[in-house]
């Protein structure tokens, strides 16, 4: 690798840029996790976390990647042989349902084209046809990070209610929490899955389950094997600010700082900022003459934009040129989109000029890689940012 000056542009859709304030908060002496200082921190964290999830209920914090919180959501609420309804929105939905199968669940996986979100009409049909309530949970990835498509969770909830179906609603918000409007309680979600390294502006290493009353009740009877992921001993210990194992104390310091930053900006402003950067990015993509992968304007993602290249061009080559020449990382196409798309992350700790630098790098990289584009694309983005 050649020598690089200045800051690396980390524009993958997670992990995201970690603010200096958060890095400094993490760089504190590690404390005794059974000493007197931890409970105060932990209880404060729960008070600051709940509004971000839009819940008044408990939030479980795991020292784990988001994948761990996926597993926790399933093993705490379900039993071997239970049926789960899931939607093929992209790579992450596919991985979550594969995990469900490995855990001994039966998955009804509604096929999709990786350009649309979970379909509320299909959800209603499946649930209305399930007269004996074999389906115990509906799994939705709120923001499908492999495609840049945001599913309409309230419409899925409405479909479940219209079918009068008692299944639990489990939602993955790993790349939407603190970037795209989300409301655990108001939307009637039973378990929300989240992670630290995307909208929450932290390094990888923490993940979360927000747990509703119905999910908590289900966890008393669920029989999938669970030990480390079991909510019950954690929630018991959390009541007085402790954990049944060693928590990731330094990441918790960082979490506190990141939550304070979100409070300072205010969640509505955070969501508006993400939506605006996403709109400017789409304007550039279209101005270049390229296609945004997301095919439904109601489902545009605020966190990232996946850019579809013309058939004869290799998106991985474009990413490589951009990394080599401009020291910027972009997201690769995943699964069936490998080589066909690249993904621009515009979430987390980010501002107008960081987006401007990102889009300049993408435009220069597309030209270097020989992709035919209209260079007036950038001006389209400035129009949106300047409006
Ligand atoms: C990143 C991501 C995951 C996986 O999280 P890890 O922290 O890599 O385990 C799952 N779902 C979505 C939607 C994601 O964006």
Automatic annotation (TrEMBL):
The keyword Transferase applies. Residues 48-320 form the Aminotransferase class V domain. GO terms for molecular function: alanine-glyoxylate transaminase activity; L-serine-pyruvate transaminase activity. Its cofactor is pyridoxal 5'-phosphate. SUPFAM superfamilies: PLP-dependent transferases. The modification N6-(pyridoxal phosphate)lysine is found at residue 198. It comes from the Bacteria. PANTHER family: ALANINE--GLYOXYLATE AMINOTRANSFERASE, AMINOTRANSFERASE CLASS V. This is Tritium exchange subunit. It comes from Nocardia terpenica.
């Amino acid at each position: 690798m050649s020598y690089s000056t200045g800051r690396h542009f980390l524009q993958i859709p997670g992990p995201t840029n970690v603010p200096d304030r958060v890095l400094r908060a993490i760089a504190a002496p590690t404390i005794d996790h059974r000493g007197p200082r931890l409970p105060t921190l932990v209880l404060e964290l729960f008070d600051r976390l709940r509004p971000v999830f839009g819940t008044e209920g408990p939030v479980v914090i795991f020292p784990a990647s988001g994948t761990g919180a996926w597993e926790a959501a399933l093993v705490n609420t379900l039993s071997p042989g239970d049926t789960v309804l899931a939607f093929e929105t992209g790579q992450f939905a596919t991985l979550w349902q594969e995990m469900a199968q490995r855990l001994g669940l039966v998955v009804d996986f509604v096929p999709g084209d990786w350009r649309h979100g979970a379909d509320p009409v299909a959800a209603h049909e499946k649930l209305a046809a399930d007269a004996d309530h074999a389906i115990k949970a509906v799994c939705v990835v709120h923001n499908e990070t492999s495609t840049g498509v945001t599913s309409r969770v309230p419409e899925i909830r409405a479909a479940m209610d219209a079918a009068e179906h008692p299944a639990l609603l489990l939602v993955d918000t790993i790349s939407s929490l603190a970037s795209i409007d989300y409301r655990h309680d108001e939307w009637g979600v039973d378990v929300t899955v989240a992670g630290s390294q995307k909208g929450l502006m932290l390094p990888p290493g923490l993940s979360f389950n927000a747990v509703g009353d119905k999910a908590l009740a289900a966890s008393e009877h669920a029989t999938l094997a669970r030990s480390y992921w079991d909510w019950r001993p954690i929630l018991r210990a959390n009541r007085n600010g402790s954990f049944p194992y060693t928590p990731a104390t330094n990441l918790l310091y960082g979490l506190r700082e990141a939550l304070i930053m979100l409070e300072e900006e205010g969640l509505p402003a955070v969501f508006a900022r993400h939506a605006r950067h996403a709109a400017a990015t789409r304007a550039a993509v279209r101005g270049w003459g390229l296609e945004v992968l997301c095919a439904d304007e109601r489902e545009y993602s605020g966190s990232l934009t996946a850019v579809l290249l013309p058939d004869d061009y290799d998106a991985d080559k474009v990413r490589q040129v951009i990394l080599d020449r401009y020291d910027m990382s972009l997201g690769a196409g995943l699964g069936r989109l490998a080589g066909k798309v690249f993904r621009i992350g515009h979430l987390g700790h980010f501002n107008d000029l960081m987006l401007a630098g990102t889009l300049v790098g993408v435009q220069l990289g597309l030209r270097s890689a020989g992709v035919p584009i209209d260079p007036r694309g950038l001006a389209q983005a400035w129009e949106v940012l300047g409006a």
